[in-house]
Amino acid sequence: MDDPTTTVLALLGLAALAAGFVDAVVGGGGLIQLPALLLGMPSAAPVQVLATNKVASICGTTVSSATYYRRIRPDPRTFLPLMALAFVGSACGAAVASRIPREAFEPIVLVALVLVGGYVVLKPELGERTALRFQGHRHLLAAMATGLAIGFYDGALGPGTGSFFVFTLVGLMGYSFLEASAKARLANWATNLAAILVFAPQGAIVWQVAIVMGICNVVGGYVGARTAVDRGTRFVRVFFIVVVSAFIVRIGGEVLGLWS
Fold it and tell me: How many CB atoms lie within 10 A of CB 253?
């Protein structure tokens, strides 16, 4: 592929900054970053776009995960098995990423986002406080299943992964939005790392672009995590609804051919 111009790198950096902020609060920064990479690197292979996106994303998730961990102190009995299975799932997804057409995912993701967004809007009390629905081994199994399933999706494609982690931790397991965001960042860090370990030996990462976007993603991730922690669960819930609604419009437009 051709080397990107300085202007293109600057625009990709701005996209990564915004993606880092969104990702740190509720997840889904890939739905900003991936389209930007597709536009900015039109001659790149799909696996190069996915791999470069993962490197940029892990920079932001590293900072936001550390910020959440210091401020929220999530329970390791949940986030460690969640991270472990998310890592395994992401590695498996990344291994088959080049064989799965993007078109096969978009209708499924759109339906999932509509259901997720509608459920959160119709249940205003959802995620206001932590009220766990499972205990003991059932809680552990729910965390592991969540990590494996969403991790596989993230390795194979990825957009909206953080939002799916947040919603599942809130809707299925009973965490508050703020607690769920903290655990989602840690799990998303693990999925990004696993995908990078699969993609890097293939020489798929465009390092010039990845480094620039990674630096910008760090700034966005730090500001997003601090904002979420300072403003609390209600802010995260409202931001979640806004972001999911925007994703529905964007992906829905692609499925219906409105943006082509």
Answer: 13
- 36 domain-assigned: yes
Confidence of residue 1 (pLDDT cuts 50, 70, 90): low
Provide the residue type at 6 as one letter: T
The Cα–Cα gap between 230 and 97 comes to 37
d(CA 17, CA 35): 14
> pTM for this one?
0.86
In a domain, 260, yes or no: no
Q: Which of 6, 23, 13 is nearest to 191 (CA)?
A: 23
Domain that holds residue 22: 6-255
Residue 30 in any domain: the answer is yes
d(CA 192, CA 243): 21
What is the per-residue pLDDT across 30-74, written as a single tens digit (0 to 9) for each?
878 888 898 888 888 888 988 999 999 999 999 999 999 999 998
Q: Which of 103, 93, 104 is nearest to 196 (CA)?
A: 93
Residue 1 lies in a domain: no
What is the number of domains present in the chain? 1
